[in-house]
Amino acid sequence: RAEREGDSGVRVGEHLDHDGMTALMYAAKDGWVEIVKYLVEVGGDEQIMAIDEECNTVLMHAIWQSENTIMIPRTRSGIWIWKDTDSRRASNRMEIVRMLVEKGGDALLRAKSNDGETAIFFAVRCGCLSLLEYLLQKGGDELLRARDNWGHTVLMVAAWKGNLEMCKYLVTTCDRDTLTSLNHDCYTAASLALQRNHTEIKNLLVEAGIDLPKKPVQL
Fold it and tell me: Where does the record place its ANK repeats (predicted)?
């Protein structure tokens, strides 16, 4: 409303704090669909492709957790995932992600943070399989071959985080080269799972043909 009325205050694309966050990033992060829709309409492509001080995009913020998200144990083995405690925000997350991807396209899907991570890494880190499936549907299998600054694939991240369901999905969708690839320190996804004592995941990956070359390091 302030923008439409010519208010001289904060503009929709203006960075609001020392972290470089914009109004759209805050709205996307907290799941406010109507606010996101409005800011996307008035902000245009520049707003969609804005980055914060860590080069995180609004899509990454939409995927990642907010203050209404907590960590909960997923299994008896001590695996942890993010879970929305605000049902409104949880139900709105996919709608916002779809809105942003439709507007930003491939450029938004392939944008990288300072750590070299694309949006698909954020979906894997927060353990959201439905978001991962959607991003792959829109961006193609090429997204699975992306590497961060340390050479980690999304499968390596899922194995390290201990998300069995996501690893099962990725084993069936990654090509052979991605499955058996090494990070910059020559560690595989299977060796990362072993280091974290995720035995079921390690066994799954070994059965898929992934070697255990050497002791892994922390992500």
Answer: 19-45, 115-147
